[in-house]
């Protein structure tokens, strides 16, 4: 493998990069060839149709504008960097069995830009205190109460813990309910790639390949998109009557080939004094229910427009999986297994004419102790 142009890493440390994008229905960390028991940490986009994911060994460019996220795999570890070049790395595979996830994991996160701190979080299904044992030495993390997301590592501890982990061959997560191995194979290569992606190699802030250069020259984080949102209108008493009317009128528009089971269920959400959103559950396959989202006049002849959902580099898509609308955000979640252990969730905000993506995160298959990764973020600016 040749060293990519623009990369400061040797070819062996470039890793397996996946661009996270699709030409239709980018969905999540889904099973390879529909096999729920064997899943790679590869961002594969699919909902109704399987789509191709572009794979490249080129180093990610340090863009001044928001970009689509990318991911890399190194042995037991994987890393994802989002549209602001915020990077998150975690152990998602067991050292001795790449087809299964570890019982405990560590996620290492860092924002782009000069002087950004490194944040550690332990993921383990346990209650009580959590500590890491590295070559016989114990490092304390915060206590957890059944939620692995609460096991944050204090910065005062992490600055000593991370160098020890980089040097170590083995590590364990110690809880009151048991001790779990923390996979370390690929950690050093992953952190070196994080330094490379964020432009820190040769600086005093690099995690692996530091140097005497100041971090002042490290590229700033790309600015996230700013999404101007509008407030939804208050519901009217007549809105409940629209459900049956719109269901009958829009049922023929459902894609009968998308699923063997047709559900034909809908909900109405008022946008203005004359228009409503209609979330229509057309079909269901395995763990995922397919929705079309319509903008509809609330009076006959009920003119309806099928809304499109756009991501840079993708064609527009016209349906979402497992859609829910709370009056502010439209959330769609697609699952890679019937147990819902791997998923990707996208949040969309209403701009007055369309939905714009404001947040995206996902969890890998096989389940790695509940680890999730940030894939996309945007700033919301309310108006109206």
What would you note in describing this structure?
The chain has helices at residues 155-167, 187-197, 239-250; strands at residues 16-19, 70-74, 77-81, 87-91, 104-110, 118-124, 127-128, 130-134, 137-140, 144-145, 151-153, 171-175, 178-181, 226-230, 261-270, 275-285, 288-297, 304-306, 320-321, 324-325, 329-335, 343-350, 355-363, 372-377, 379-383. It is mainly beta and 384 residues long. The chain has 2 domains: 11-226, Immunoglobulin-like (Sandwich); 227-383, no CATH class. The protein has a 7-stranded antiparallel sheet.
SSE map:
Layout: E1 16-19, E2 70-74, E3 77-81, E4 87-91, E5 104-110, E6 118-124, E7 127-128, E8 130-134, E9 137-140, E10 144-145, E11 151-153, H1 155-167, E12 171-175, E13 178-181, H2 187-197, E14 226-230, H3 239-250, E15 261-270, E16 275-285, E17 288-297, E18 304-306, E19 320-321, E20 324-325, E21 329-335, E22 343-350, E23 355-363, E24 372-377, E25 379-383
Parallel strand pairs: 14-25
Antiparallel strand pairs: 1-2, 2-3, 3-4, 4-5, 5-6, 6-11, 7-10, 8-9, 8-12, 12-13, 15-16, 16-17, 17-18, 17-19, 20-21, 21-22, 22-23, 23-24
């Amino acid at each position: 493998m040749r060293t990519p142009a623009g990369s400061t890493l040797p070819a062996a440390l470039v890793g397996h990069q996946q661009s996270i994008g699709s030409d239709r229905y980018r969905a999540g960390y889904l099973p390879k060839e529909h096999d729920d028991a064997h899943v790679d940490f590869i961002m594969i986009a699919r909902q109704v149709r399987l789509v191709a994911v572009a794979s490249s060994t080129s180093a990610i460019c340090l863009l001044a504008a928001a970009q689509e996220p990318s991911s890399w795999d190194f042995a037991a570890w994987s890393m994802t960097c989002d549209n602001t070049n915020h990077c998150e790395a975690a152990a998602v595979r067991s050292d001795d069995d790449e087809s299964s996830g570890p019982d405990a994991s560590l996620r290492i996160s860092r924002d782009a830009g000069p002087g950004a701190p490194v944040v550690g979080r332990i993921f383990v299904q346990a209650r009580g205190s959590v500590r890491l044992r590295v070559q016989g030495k114990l490092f304390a993390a915060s206590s957890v109460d059944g939620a692995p997301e609460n096991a944050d590592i204090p910065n005062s501890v992490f600055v000593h813990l991370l160098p020890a982990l980089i040097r170590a061959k083995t590590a364990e997560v110690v809880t009151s309910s048991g001790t779990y191995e923390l996979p370390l194979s690929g950690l050093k290569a992953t952190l070196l790639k994080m330094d490379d992606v964020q432009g820190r190699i040769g600086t005093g802030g690099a995690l692996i390949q530091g140097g005497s250069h100041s971090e002042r020259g490290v590229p700033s984080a790309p600015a996230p998109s700013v999404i101007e949102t509008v407030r939804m209108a208050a519901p009217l008493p007549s809105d409940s009557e629209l459900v049956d009317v719109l269901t009958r009128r829009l049922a023929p528009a459902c894609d009968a080939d998308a699923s063997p089971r047709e559900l034909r269920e809908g909900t109405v959400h008022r946008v203005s004094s004359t228009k409503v959103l209609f979330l229509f559950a057309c079909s269901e396959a395995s763990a995922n229910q397919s929705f079309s989202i319509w903008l509809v006049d609330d009076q006959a002849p009920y003119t309806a427009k099928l809304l499109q959902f756009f991501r840079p580099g993708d064609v527009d898509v016209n349906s979402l999986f497992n859609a829910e609308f709370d009056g502010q955000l439209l959330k769609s979640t697609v699952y890679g297994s019937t147990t819902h252990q791997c998923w990707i969730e996208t949040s969309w905000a209403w701009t007055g004419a369309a939905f714009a993506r404001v947040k995206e995160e996902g969890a890998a298959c096989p389940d790695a102790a509940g680890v999730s990764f940030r894939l996309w973020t945007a700033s919301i600016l309310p108006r109206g």
